[in-house]
Amino acid sequence: MGEEKKFGSHSFEVSNLDKVFFPKEGYTKGDLIDYYEKIADTMLPYIKNRPLTMIRFPNGIEDKQFYQKDAPDYFPAWIKTKAIEKQEGGTTNYVVCNDKATLVYLANQACITPHIWLSRQDRLDFPDRMIIDLDPSHDDFGEVKDAAKKIRELLGEELGLPLYLMTTGSRGLHIVVPMKRTRDFDEVRKFAQKAARFLEQEYPDTMTTAARKNKRGDKLFLDVGRNAFGQTGVAPYSVRPINGAPVATPLDWDELDRSSLSAQSYNIKNIFNRLGSKEDPWKDMDASAVSLTAARKELNNIFKEN
């Protein structure tokens, strides 16, 4: 049975609400839709005006998934899109999710996990986010937390970068730098790569920039590959397609001291208790945006590469 959803002048039917998407917990498609409707006001500022890639699971997390960049022809005309040229020719018509109606519509399309660009649609070549993805080699979240603190000492305290923290909802953490849109992706990526090599040099026993898994050993991988045109990161407050329906959750830095904290601490059920008892840690992050000029100069001073 379907149900009519109405948001202002936009209305559509949501369907198959009883279909189980997370078998272990019995969470249904209806639960996913309800989650995104409730989280929309908190989540929308982080995804607004950004091209979005849908990861869709028509029959739940234990069945086939597919990535979809192009908005299908059957999407309603009121859903905003951005046509972006492909290198091989032609264009991709990305969804741009600027309102609750669109977010709920995407959930009804079995889009469990929206991924977003690091730039906004009006200046695609100039990111306003830089991401360092802390990707552990094994499931010891204590090591991830320790690495995050060390990165904050070097990049935050020494280089003066504003650093924001988020559980990925999977295994690791994202450290995010809000940026003024003054440098293109190539410049930002070069800085991120050099910062990662600096960290690797400082902590050679625990951190690596080796992209190949067989070269990492037990070290934590500093993944800066998302800092490129057309690459995406998991959107804050997105649900991950994992048992328990964990949610990518912005954190305060002092929360790393909680022994109970894991990458999957928050999920579609308990996230609202959190948001009801504390302010969203990323709420004012854009006010901290930097240009990288001072940080790049300082990095060049303290890290001389052969």
Structure summarized in a few sentences:
By secondary structure, the chain is α+β, with helices and mostly antiparallel strands. It contains six helices and 16 strands. α1 runs antiparallel to α2.
Can you offer a commentary on this structure?
It contains 6 helices and 16 strands. About 25% of the residues lie in helices and about 25% in strands. The protein starts with a strand and ends with a helix. Strand 11 and strand 12 (about 175-180) form a beta hairpin. The strands form 4 sheets. Strands 5, 6, 7, 8, 9 and 15 form a 6-stranded antiparallel β-sheet that branches. It is an alpha+beta fold and about 300 residues long. The mean pLDDT is about 95. It has helices at about 30-45, 100-110, 140-160, 185-200, 270-275, 295-300, and strands spanning about 5, 10-15, 20, 25-30, 50-55, 65-70, 80-85, 90-95, 110-115, 130-135, 165, 175-180, 205-210, 220-225, 230-235, 250. Helix 1 (about 30-45) packs antiparallel against helix 2 (about 100-110). It folds into 2 domains: about 5-115, DNA primase, PRIM domain, CATH 3.90.920.10; about 125-230 and about 240-305, DNA primase, PRIM domain (Alpha-Beta Complex). Its EC number is 6.5.1.1. It holds the Pfam family LigD_Prim-Pol. This is Non-homologous end-joining DNA ligase.
Note the topology.
Blueprint: E1 3-7, E2 10-14, E3 20-22, E4 27-28, H1 29-47, E5 51-56, E6 66-68, E7 81-85, E8 91-96, H2 100-108, E9 111-117, E10 129-135, H3 141-158, E11 164-167, E12 173-178, H4 185-202, E13 207-208, E14 220-223, E15 232-234, E16 249-251, H5 271-277, H6 293-302
Parallel strand pairs: 13-14
Antiparallel strand pairs: 1-2, 3-4, 5-6, 5-8, 5-9, 7-8, 9-15, 10-12, 10-14, 11-12, 11-16
